[in-house]
Amino acid sequence: MKNEIKQDESASTRWLNLSQQNYINQVSIDCVIFGYQERQLKVLIPKLLYKGDFWVLPSGFVLQDEDVDQAAQRILCERTSIKGIYLEQFQVFGRANRNSKEFINRLKDINYETLKESDKNFEQSIDYKWLTQRFISIGYYALVDINKVVPQKSILDESIEWYNIDEIPPMVMDHNEILEKALQTLRKDIDEKLNVFNLLPEKFTIADVQEIYETIFERTYVRTNFQKKILEFNVLERLEKKFTGAANKAPYLYRFKDSVTKK
Amino acid sequence: MKNEIKQDESASTRWLNLSQQNYINQVSIDCVIFGYQERQLKVLIPKLLYKGDFWVLPSGFVLQDEDVDQAAQRILCERTSIKGIYLEQFQVFGRANRNSKEFINRLKDINYETLKESDKNFEQSIDYKWLTQRFISIGYYALVDINKVVPQKSILDESIEWYNIDEIPPMVMDHNEILEKALQTLRKDIDEKLNVFNLLPEKFTIADVQEIYETIFERTYVRTNFQKKILEFNVLERLEKKFTGAANKAPYLYRFKDSVTKK
DNA sequence: CCAAAAGTGTTATCCGTACACCCATGC
DNA sequence: GCATGGGTGTACGGATAACACTTTTGG
Description:
- 2 copies of one chain form a homodimer.
- By secondary structure, chain A is α+β, with helices and mostly antiparallel strands.
- Chain A is 27% helix and 24% strand.
- Chain A has 2 domains: 11-192, Nucleoside Triphosphate Pyrophosphohydrolase, CATH 3.90.79; 200-256, Orthogonal Bundle (Arc Repressor Mutant, subunit A), CATH 1.10.10.10.
- Chain A contains 6 helices and 8 strands.
- Chain A is elongated and about 70 Å long.
- The two termini of chain A are 35 Å apart.
- Mean pLDDT of chain A is 88; it is low at 1-13.
- At the A-B interface, strand 1, helix 1 and strand 4 of A face strand 1, helix 1 and strand 4 of B.
- Chain A binds a DNA duplex through residues 205-207, 222-225, 227-229, 241, 243-252.
- Chains A, B: It comes from Arcicella rigui.
- Chains A, B: This is NUDIX domain-containing protein.
- Chains A, B: Residues 24-187 form the Nudix hydrolase domain.
C-alpha cells in the first residue's frame, strides 16, 4: 500500500517524507547495473518524469538497520525485480560540494509552470533541505542476466531503459563519472572475480562468454585460445550439448560451478 | 588553543562536543598507516589511555565542508604530522550492527572506579549517543616514510606506536579485519599503482625496494631479475652512487620521477 | 689481490598466441 | 559429401626466471 499515490498529487509531493524515513543522513548509494544483449553492453538508467531530460543512476539510501550491501541489494531489487543480484562496491564519491542542489533547482525552474501551487515553495520544505544536502555516495556495480530483469519505474520516473554503453545519455551530477569508474573497475576485476557469468543465463556456451569479453574489452579473441583460457579457470561445469538445428557441431553448454563462490 | 584541555578533566569529558562538531553523521574514516623499517612492514596504531588495552585504528570523521579524501588527509596529518601523504580509499565497512557500543561499554565498565562522578552517567550524554550510533566507515590505507613521521597521540591515547605486521594487537570492533583488507589491497595494487616508493625516503637503492617487496610478499626475489623489473617500470631516475664505506661496488641511488603521477 | 655486492648479459623455461587439424551436425 | 562451426593438439615467440659473468669498492 505504501506505493499507492493519489493521482492528483504532483511528483514533487511524492518526495515528501524522505527526511522522515529512517535513513542514514547524507549517505547515498548509486548503482551501475550492467546487462548484456546482442553484442552490446548495456546499463539500466531511469529518466525522471519531469521536463528537461533528467537521467539519473538508480539510487537510494541506507536504512538504519540495514547493511550497506543489503541496501544496494534492495535498491537493485526495486529496479530490476530480482533478488540476490551480483554486485560489487567499487568506490566512494565524497567531494564536499557533491549535492543535488543545482540539478534540483534546474528541474524546478524548467517545470515551474506545471507545479502545483503548494510545490512552488518546495525550497522551504524539509524534504528539499534533506535531499539537497551534501551526500557521500557509495558506488556499486551490478551484473545481471538482462532477460531476468523486469525494469521497474519508480514513482518519479518517466522511463527506465537499457542504454548501450556507447550511447549513455548525459546524467545529473557526477553520475556519468560514476558509470565510467564502474566500467573501469569491471574491466579490471573481470578475470579475478570471475563475474562475467552473471551477465548470462544459467546455461551458456563458451562462444557466449567470448562475445561478452569482446564487447566489454572492445577487441577480438582467438576462439581456440579463448576457450582454453576460460576453461582453465576451472569454474565451469560442462552440461549437455546445445542443438540449434544449424548444420554444424553443437557446442556444449556450461554452468558456473556452484562450488565456486561468485563473490 | 582548541587542543588545550584542563588537567583535571577526565578523559571521557574530552569526548564532549563531538556531536556538536560540524561532522557528517554516522560516517567515519579508518586509516591503516603503513610504514617500513628494517625488513618489517609496520602499522601505526594508537592505544587508548584507559585500562583494558584498547587498541584502535587512527580514525576520525568528515566535516561538512570537507572532501572525504581531505578528511583522511587531515586525520593522517593529525597522527603523523606530515601533509600530503599517499593514500588510497579501499573499502566501505557498512554492516548494520557496526557500532562502538559494546567497546565503549566495556571500556566504561573496566574504568568505572577511576571515572569522575559526572562521567558515571556517560550513557545519558549526547556524546555517548552520538559516538555509539551505527557508523559507516570508509577505509583508507596510507604509505609513509617512517622516518618522516612524528607520531602524535590524540588526547585519548596512552601511546601511538608502530607495530610489526605480524604482531598487530587485537583492536576494537572490526579494526583487525579492516587492517587485513588494507594489506590485501596493498599487495594487489602495488605493481599497478607503483606506490611502494612512498614507504621509502626520497633517495633509495634498488636493494631497498627489493627488501620492501620481500617483506610485503613474504618471499624472496632473484636480485638481478628484480632490478630489471623495477627499472622497466620506467618511473625511477638514476642519481649519484651511494658510498657506504663498505668494500664493494656502490649502488646507484634512485628517485621516483616527478613526471610520473603517483596516484 | 681478494671479498662482497652491484650491474649486465646469456641461457633456459614457461606461458600466451597462432594455427593446423579433427569432429559433429544437418542439408 | 560438404559447408559450418566446435573442440583439441602443436609449434612458435616473447616474457620471465635462473644463472654466469663482469665491475666496483675498500681493506
